[in-house]
Design goal:
Elements lengths: L7 E3 L6 E4 L2 E4 L13 H10 L3 E6 L2 E3 L3 H9 L12 E3 L4 E4 L5 H16 L5 E4 L17 H4 L3 H15 L7 E4 L12 E3 L16 H10 L5 E2 L1 E2 L12 H11 L6 E2 L14
Parallel strand pairs: 1-4, 4-8, 8-9, 9-10, 10-11, 12-13
Antiparallel strand pairs: 2-3, 5-7, 6-7
Helix pairs in contact: 3-5
C-alpha cells in the first residue's frame, strides 16, 4: 500500500520448525516441509512472475533424528568421533551430524541436496548459516587435524554453495549469504550478514555492533553485507521494541539488502504486523 517494492520473501523455516526452550528453531532437514508450506512450489512460480524471489535457509549440519542425517550416516558422509562413530554435536536440545566436506563424495552429495531441494524448487537465494562450528576434536576424511581445518571450514562451506550455483548455471542469479568467513571465503561468498545480534541497542551484540561488523567485513574484502533487521536473539527479559525495529530499518536502508527477522521468540518481539 505504501508503494515499496518487495524483491523477496524469506522463509527461514521452509524445512520445518523445531520448538525448544531457546525458542523457535529451524528443522535441519534440508527439504521443503509441505505441511508448513503447502503448495510452496506453485507459490514460488507465481511470486517469480510478479518479480519476487523466494529465499530459504540451510547449514552444513543435518538433524540426527531426520532422514537426511540417516542417509549421510549410511553413506559414511559424517565427521567421526575418536571411537570412529559419527560425531553428533549438541545444538540446544537436539543433535546434528557434521557433513564432512573434506570427503569428496560427501561434498558432492551435499551439493546435490542444494541443487535438488533448493535450486530445483525455485529458491532465488538462501541463508547459508554457520560454518564456524567445526568441533576441534572431530576426525575428518582428509586426515588433517580439525584444529587446522577449523578456520578453513567457512571457505569450504562457501565453496560448496558457490559451486552448486555454478554447476546449475545460476551463478549471478541466485544469492546466498553467510555469517562465517576465513581467508579464501571472499572468492565464494556472494554476500555476508552480521550474524545473530541481540534484540537490543548494545555495541557488544546489538544494533550498534552492526556498524563495526560492516567495516570489518569491508576491510577483509567482503563488500556486500547486511544484518537481521531488528536482531535475532531474545534472552532473559530482552524484547524487541517498536523503536528498535524502526531504527534498524533506517540503518538497513543504507546497506545492500534489507531483510527482516522475526527472532528466536517471535511472540516476544515487535513485528511489522504487531
Amino acid at each position: 500500500n505504501a508503494g515499496v517494492k518487495v524483491n523477496g520473501i524469506w522463509a527461514q523455516d521452509w524445512s520445518g520448525i523445531r520448538m525448544t526452550s531457546f525458542g523457535k528453531r529451524v528443522m535441519w532437514n534440508w527439504k521443503w516441509n509441505s505441511e508448513n508450506y503447502p503448495q510452496l512450489d506453485s507459490r514460488i512460480k507465481q511470486w517469480n512472475k510478479e518479480g519476487v524471489q523466494f529465499l530459504a535457509y540451510i547449514n552444513p549440519y543435518v538433524a540426527s533424528d531426520k532422514d537426511l542425517c540417516e542417509e549421510a550416516a549410511k553413506r559414511g558422509y559424517l565427521a567421526k568421533d575418536v571411537a570412529g562413530g559419527d560425531y553428533l554435536v549438541e545444538f540446544g536440545e537436539f543433535y546434528g551430524g557434521v557433513v564432512d566436506l573434506t570427503n569428496p563424495e560427501a561434498y558432492a552429495w551435499f551439493k546435490e541436496v542444494i541443487k535438488k531441494n533448493m535450486i530445483e524448487l525455485g529458491c532465488g537465494g538462501w541463508m547459508a548459516d554457520f560454518g564456524e562450528y567445526l568441533p576441534t576434536d572431530t576426525y575428518l576424511h582428509n586426515g588433517i587435524s580439525a584444529e587446522i581445518m577449523h578456520n578453513a571450514w567457512p571457505a569450504l562451506w562457501a565453496k560448496c554453495n558457490y559451486e552448486a550455483l555454478e554447476e546449475t548455471g545460476k551463478l549471478g542469479e541466485i544469492l546466498f549469504f553467510m555469517r562465517a568467513g576465513s581467508t579464501g571465503s571472499q572468492k565464494y561468498s556472494t554476500m555476508m550478514w552480521a550474524g545473530d545480534q541481540n534484540v537490543d541497542w548494545s555495541l557488544d551484540d546489538g544494533l550498534a555492533s552492526v556498524v563495526p561488523a560492516a567495516l570489518s567485513l569491508a576491510m577483509t574484502g567482503h563488500g556486500l553485507h547486511h544484518s537481521d533487521i531488528g536482531g535475532y536473539t531474545t534472552l532473559f527479559e530482552m524484547k524487541r521494541s517498536k523503536e528498535l525495529l524502526l531504527r534498524w530499518c533506517d540503518f538497513s536502508a543504507f546497506t545492500p539488502m534489507m531483510r527482516t527477522h522475526e527472532g528466536n521468540r517471535p511472540g516476544d518481539n515487535w513485528q511489522f504486523d504487531g
